[in-house]
Design goal:
By secondary structure, the chain is mostly helical. Helix content is about 75%, strand content about 0%. It has helices at about 10-20, 25-35, 40-65, 70-75, 75-90. Helix 1 packs antiparallel against helix 3 (about 40-65) and helix 2 (about 25-35) packs antiparallel against helix 3.
Length: about 90
């Protein structure tokens, strides 16, 4: 991905987007388009079951390859606000 010059967050988003499939929608369309084919439905469901460990492994790899601290990069304004609210509750 050197030609695209993406930063780590953009590269992670692109990787997760292209890795994930919309299997429930695919199953619904397949049932409508090819009725009475339980083998095809089973294969799509098997793909759904394999997708979650695959995405977990990809997520772990992306966090491992992340430059710097991933947790601070994932900090959002809402998280900062929640942390501030929690700090104010104890004063």
């Amino acid at each position: 991905m050197e030609g695209f010059s993406l930063n780590h967050a953009e590269r992670a988003a692109l990787t997760m987007t292209t890795s994930a499939r919309n299997a429930p929608l695919m199953l619904a369309l397949t049932v409508a388009a090819i009725p009475d084919q339980p083998l095809v439905y089973s294969i799509i469901i098997l793909g759904m079951l394999l997708e979650f460990p695959h995405l977990t492994a990809v997520s772990h790899y992306l966090r491992k390859c992340a430059p710097g601290d991933v947790e601070s990069a994932a900090e959002t304004p809402r998280r900062r606000w929640l942390a501030q609210v929690d700090d104010n509750d104890y004063r």
